[in-house]
Amino acid sequence: MASTKPVDASLWWDSFSLLLTELENASLSSDLPPILVKTLKDNHAWFVDTVSCFKPPNENSREALNSQQVEIWSHQLNIKPELKDKALKISSYLDIDLFTLWAEETLIEDNLVLDILFPAYYESFCTCNGERWKTLCVLYKLAVSTEALRSSYQTKVQLLLILIETLDLESLLQMVHDAIPFRQGTFVFTLADVQEMEAIISTFNAFETKEAGPLILAWAVFLCLISSLPGSEESNVLMEIDHVGYVRQAFEAALLNDCVEILQSDVLKEPDGPADGYRSVLRTFVSAFIASYAISLQLEDKSLKLILDILCKIYQGEESLCIQFWDRESFIDGPIRCLLCNLEGEFPFRTVELVRLLSSLCEGTWPAECVYNFLDKSLGISSLVEINGSFGEDRSQIVETHLPLHVPGFEGLVIPSKTCGHILRLVSGNTALVRWEAVCFALMDIGNSSHFQSTGMNGQTESNMRLVEVICTLVRKLSPTSDGAALMSVGINILAKMLRCSPSRVSEVALKANIFGFRNGHNDPSSGTWFLSGKLAKMLLIDCEQNDSCCSLTISVLDFTLHLVETGLKNDAVLDLIVFSIQYVLVNHEYWKFKVKHTLWRVTLKVLEVMKKIITSVSYSEKLDEVILDRLLSDSSIHSKLPKHWRDFISAGSLI
Fold first, then answer.
1. How many Å apart are CA 53 and CA 68, to the nearest integer?
2. Among 535, 537, 513, 574, residue whose Cα is nearest residue 362
3. 575, 565, 567: which is closest to 503 by C-alpha?
4. Cα–chain-centroid distance for residue 272?
5. Pairing of strands 381-386, 69-72
6. Is 584 exposed, middle or buried (0-12, 13-18, 19+ CB in 10 A)?
């Protein structure tokens, strides 16, 4: 047995605590001291490879442990037989714990690096050439291998989004939009790059590694856009690649579900990460996909719903993306806007999908107004009708109803007489698909039909409630301007109409949304004070003083209050609105600066009508009775505005 056994010098390392302290204290404005530089170079392997420097047991290490002494570089260590067996046993648990620790630390570092790398490409600080893209793609392939750890999911998603971003689909969409011919040098990738990148992607299999689906589809979209450019047909390289086959493979592997998972992952929920940029990349990707393959409403229902689900999750809560969507100059959102218009064109047959998508596109004041205008001005009805004598002999593109026309399959939804329609296409014989305009409010009355109530059309009920949510969102986010006040008036009018269709459900959704900005739960009736809605009060004054609408906002708020009282619903939210009507509108409206004098009397009559309904319905709830009667009897400013016989009636009621 040899007394001393030399081993690899790299197995020795000193404690790094002192080195790290020296690095933290080093000046940033000058070079590092030579001794510190030498120490860093000597330990370079450990800094780069960390615990991966540990090797599995081998014959040389076994012989070293069997010797009396181990020599590592200039260091000599004595082997103690009584500790050797214990050390070997402990080390078997460490090829597991150390590896796990190394993997976790490495993934954290990878995530940080990718967080930095993504903005570098997204903000165009640097470009990604073909060679670099291939390198990233090889790394992605490793990340989605069956041996990868589950905890690598975040790294995989980050790398996927970088790969999609560096394909520069936005520039390709612009080139397709502007019909710019494909030439060498006009795009970041050369034909040789495309050919080599294709060789890598062709090795992916979406059925074996399902995470590869989104990248395969992004590559297919990239190829389709390039192939759509003028002059691309002259390239045999592009014409020989089957991008449609990639799409088929990705669809069969259910890639859309993977996109939904990405949008629900923690990667897009990190407050300090580039989540906005990630959503923007996915928006461009989906838009390019829709444009490339002419995705329409004829797509299989399940796939279409998934695409709409993805779009809703992309835009939901993202004001900047919503602003871009409604900007007609934004060519990137163009294909998605076309999909929205197609949904609207088939109303009422896809109402749920239409309203859901609109509800995700109203984040922010201006997008909210855009959604409202879309609902108010664009919504029409399409139906199959027989073009016969009832429409006249002229079968031109424009027809007009002579009598009210019922929409087949939607009893209670009636197209009024004298409504004009545009023939979209002839289906067969005398049957045509006609789009009827200017009947957007027909949706509000559908809940009244006996057919609707008896058959329980859940899908349509859902669409009505979603529409209530959309309108509530719009009303709540409107800015205190003259236009905002006018839009709020129309919105509250719609809610009042829908309230009559389904009182309990509409009132529940509308009040929960707190559209008027009352501070629910902070009111103390016994204190004699009330937290009124400052925004609503300001909007009423703006509408009264600046709009030529005869205080339509005030009237609509009072009508909404009246309908709420008629439902018999009694809770704090209703109480807020009642007290606002009597303590603010009743007391103050005679001092407003009306543009038209007779409007004063119109508001007075309406507020007294609300008061009458309140007084005759105070027996519904003891709590509300107490608060309301306290206001009517104890507040002198309110008491003085009521007619004498009303005051006597209230006083008598309080004694009873």
1. 24
2. 513
3. 567
4. 18
5. unpaired
6. middle
Asked if 489 and 527 touch (Cβ cutoff 8 Å), the reply is: no
User: Would you state the pLDDT for residue 55?
Assistant: 62
pLDDT tens column, 84-109 = 777 776 666 556 455 555 555 666 66
Of 629, 638, 634, 637, the closest CA to residue 608 belongs to: 638
pTM over 0.85: no
Q: pLDDT of 336-389, one tens digit each?
A: 999 898 888 777 667 767 877 887 888 887 887 788 778 766 666 778 888 765
Q: Return the number of other C-beta atoms located less than 10 Å from residue 170's C-beta.
A: 18
| Cα 447 to the center of its chain, rounded Å | 29
Residue 75: strand pairing partners: 72
pLDDT at 210: 65
* Three-state SS sequence of 157-169: HHHHHHHHHHCCH
The CA distance from 585 to 604, in Å, is 9
Burial classification of residue 458, based on how many CB atoms lie within 10 Å of its CB (0-12 exposed, 13-18 middle, 19 or more buried): exposed
Residue pLDDT, tens place only, 462-493: 555 667 777 887 788 778 888 788 878 878 88
Nearest-angstrom CA–CA distance, 38 and 21:
16
Kindly state the tokens that stand for 371: 């959604």
